[in-house]
């Protein structure tokens, strides 16, 4: 489990200090000025929040939680725009990875591990709906979560627009295309989008990308695990760039 803080004022202070918060749990039905201030801060910062019964909070911590518990990520997140600018300044073709609603922490950890091995410049995830970085994520990543920059954004659509305006081509990994991965030129600046375990990439994201690519599947199973598919895509980039 990620590091935990509890108490309304403590959670507020963590938000003010821009701590990397994975998720906040608030007790149903509470009121008061401080509680409302916390709710406002959560909305303003686009943080993931769930309203739960007090029994849930009591299971999360044995301490006096006052109706608020937050899980803190074990890693710090990077500023997205700074991450892109730093990658462009390196003088080589940047490579980014965008994860559209990948929700399993172990899949996320495996993706982080492969991304670090393949020289990815940064991983971009949405603030809402994405897998949190927990101790399980870090363990599955073999520590790579501490080595590769990860940025959270309000909306992946805006991130895609920014990447495209920065001269970075966005390629979606999807079976909804006739293009196989081997027909795509990955030697230029590229960002690869991987989709959720169950639904793949959302239609609204697919409408924005510059290219779509699929993996050939020769058996009867219709799809690969997202972390495995991600590894195949990233190593095709490595192959082409070497």
Fraction in beta strands: 15-25%
CATH superfamily of the largest domain: SPOUT methyltransferase, trefoil knot domain
CATH topology of the largest domain: Alpha/beta knot
Q: What is the approximate shape?
A: elongated
Q: Number of domains in the coordinates? A: 2
Number of strands: 10
Mean pLDDT comes to 93
* Poorly predicted sequence stretches spanning 5 or more consecutive residues: none
Number of helices: 9
Computed CA radius of gyration, to the nearest angstrom = 19 Å
CATH class annotation of the largest domain: Alpha Beta
Which structural class is indicated by helix and strand composition? alpha/beta
The helix content is 25-40%
H/E topology pattern: EHEHEHEHEHEHEHEEHEH
Distance between the termini: 39 Å
What does the main sheet amount to?
6 strands, parallel
Strand order of the largest sheet: 7-6-5-9-8-10
What is the annotated CATH architecture of the largest domain?
A: 3-Layer(aba) Sandwich
